[in-house]
Amino acid sequence: MQAPATPITNIAAYQFASLSDLRDRKASLLRQCLEWDLKGTILLSPEGINLFIAGHRESVDRLLAELRSWPGLEGLTPKFSETEHVPFHRMLVRLKREIIAFGIHEIDPARKTSPKLSARTLKQWLDEGRPVTLLDTRNDYEVRMGTFDKALPIGVDHFREFPEAVKRLPSALKETPIVMFCTGGIRCEKAGPFMEREGFHNVFQLDGGILKYFEECGGAHYRGECFVFDQRVGVGPDLRETGSGVCFRCQSPLTAAEQRDPRYVPNASCPYCFVTPDEQRRRSIERRHERLEALIDPLPGSVPVDQYRPVRIAEKHAGLRLPEALSRMIPVVTVAQWVEEIEAGRVILDDDRPACLSDSVRPGTRYRHRTPQVTEPPVQARFRILHEDEALIVVNKPAPLPMHPGGRFFRNTLQHFIDALYHPMRPHPAHRLDANTTGVVLFTRTRHFAGRLQPQFERNEVLKTYLARVTGHPVPDAFHCDQPIADRPRELGARAIDPIGGLSAWTDFRVLRRDPDGTSLIEASPKTGRTNQIRLHLEHLGFPLVGDRTYTGGGILGDRQTLAPDDAPLCLHALRIAFRHPILLAPVSFETPAPEWAAIPITSSPISA
Known about the structure:
Elements: E1 8-16, H1 22-35, E2 39-45, E3 48-55, H2 57-68, E4 79-83, E5 91-95, E6 116-117, H3 119-128, E7 133-136, H4 140-143, E8 146-148, E9 152-153, H5 162-167, E10 178-181, H6 186-197, E11 203-206, H7 209-217, E12 222-224, E13 226-227, E14 234-235, E15 245-246, E16 253-254, H8 256-259, H9 277-295, E17 305-312, H10 322-329, H11 335-343, E18 347-349, E19 366-374, E20 384-388, E21 392-397, H12 414-422, E22 428-429, E23 438-444, H13 447-458, E24 463-471, E25 478-481, E26 507-514, E27 519-526, H14 533-540, E28 572-580, E29 587-591
Parallel strand pairs: 2-5, 6-11, 7-9, 7-10, 10-11, 23-28
Antiparallel strand pairs: 1-3, 1-4, 2-3, 8-12, 13-14, 15-16, 17-19, 18-19, 20-21, 21-23, 22-23, 24-27, 24-28, 25-26, 26-27, 28-29
Helix pairs in contact: 9-12, 10-11
């Protein structure tokens, strides 16, 4: 028959005393503890010693004999308990300014402490029902595991907060008997003199703390268990381990019942730190908004830098001279302008060699077009993230804000800011809005999710709803436009209605309100996704958008494409988008608040903004 294992002896002890030669004492003490196969922590400071140690009884006795040989520690008296295993991983001896952090150095327990009340006397007082306030000086997470009946928690997360917490106590307590207590008594050695200094006239400290009370009186007048600072986490009135644990994430002690809570997930969460998925998303979005404030002040494009635009030669341009190929790929720049750029050395190959006018291009060749010391126009960059999950990012875009690099914009773009906020991910825009259009924009977090969402756009299954304010009063309440739109840009990078060679396009319209100022508020639902589609269709129908500086009416181009932040707004807003979620495969819808120019009285509003 196997003999029972020898129990492990655990001791907790402290002593306030004036100690010196601490570095030499630390080295010697650590060497001895390792030789004796002890584990735990010993704190040494000029004001004394504090220790939690475990090992076989003969080794513990050797340590106590050594410490009692030090001047000032002759009366060191530990509290004993036993376990079947060592509740510490290693042996540490540390030097500290204080053996219990308090921060008020004029409080010196080696010279003066409050009167001590023995465990048996406290039990007698409580048995008799004496009028006394039991003040729990421990941290809130310790109090949750157990405390004396009707005890008053001081209400701190760390003992350093005790002085401020005392100031919040009712002034009436200054004249009533107070018995303060903690785990082993050490905190009360400083808390008592401090309270006396603050005008509390009848303060006692429980000698030896809760552990000594358990040792002498068991669990009378106490509910729960006592938190201890080792692997046991909690001990009951019999001073045996209770089975409590600690949350890996927030370090809160957890009773056995709390570990059965569905919110407790080992190494992940517990009832005290668990947050719902919605709350996690809300916090994540708040952090991204805070990060955005740093990214846009100043706007990155306000700092002059050389800009490089990549160009990759397509198969259909093989064999052309470089200026002609570049002009066909970027029609807004003429052949003559490309000749000037190449001669100036601003068209560069991937290996940093300048390109030559005589180069005959080959498919797949990469060039970079350098624009020196570019300062970009200002934009409205303070967009809001409406939603994010594993697959999607939904944004409420302000205006003016270009979606991606192009023209005069490289870094002052929504794509640049999204890339910075979600680095190292490179989110992909699922669709696009004009720089001057506000409202809901959808990104996918990865190319994989883009591939699962994009077919819905191609099949015209994504429902998009816009608000628009137009010049004029359309006669029918509902109408549509199906004029094709040119695939290639013209001046200003604008498009045009092209009935012969254009791409098919369809937009449904519904009049929401005709206003006395000669404008109308309209709901637009594009069934296709051509560039500038809603703007072009409304202009073609004779109802150009209010604030449109490009499509001003009658097919005549205006003076600019992208507005300045202080210009009157383009009155086009992407209100709502609905589709099937690429992971859940269920219908989802996201909506943004309507802008001021689209304000509709609540009593007559046919849509929810």
